[in-house]
Write a structure and sequence with these properties.
The protein has helices spanning 19-29, 33-41, 47-60, 65-78, 85-97, and strands at residues 4-8, 11-15. The protein is mostly helical. InterPro entries: Phage_TAC_11.
């Protein structure tokens, strides 16, 4: 799976949770990715879970271990804990379900249907009663 670029309080970085990163997260949190996402969605998470998902996601996205640890620690010192919840949900969702099929926005605007392709009101065959 390819890394996803996600905006979080520490900036905008590539995140990816491969097997190696998931193993570390599971060892540190005693949770699999789907259960961890469920805990986040229901407000039953711990700070260490946020830290581990982000740190390992950055490592999986290509950031060296030491840099990932420094970046995450600095971000957690500067920002409210709750501001990390949604980015962690996004990292886990991409890992579990893949990237969004329909990202917000369009490459090009949708063109209106040409008049010759539009159907007029009442173009259906009349019904007989």
């Amino acid at each position: 799976m390819q890394a996803a670029t996600i905006r979080w309080p520490g900036g905008e970085h590539a995140f990816r949770l491969g097997i190696a990163e998931l193993e570390v997260i599971q060892q540190k949190t005693q949770c699999g990715p789907e259960y961890l996402l469920h805990k986040l969605n229901t407000g039953q998470w711990f700070a260490v879970e946020l830290i581990e998902v982000l740190r390992n996601g950055l490592i999986g996205g290509g950031l060296p271990h030491v840099e990932a640890l420094k970046l995450v620690r600095n971000a957690f010192e500067l920002h409210d804990l709750i501001s990390f919840k949604v980015p962690v949900q996004e990292v886990l969702s991409v890992c579990l379900y893949g990237p969004a099929d329909d990202p917000v926005g369009e490459d090009q605007p949708v063109m209106p249907t040409p008049e010759n392709e539009q159907t007029a009101a009442g173009s259906s065959a009349p019904t007989t009663d």
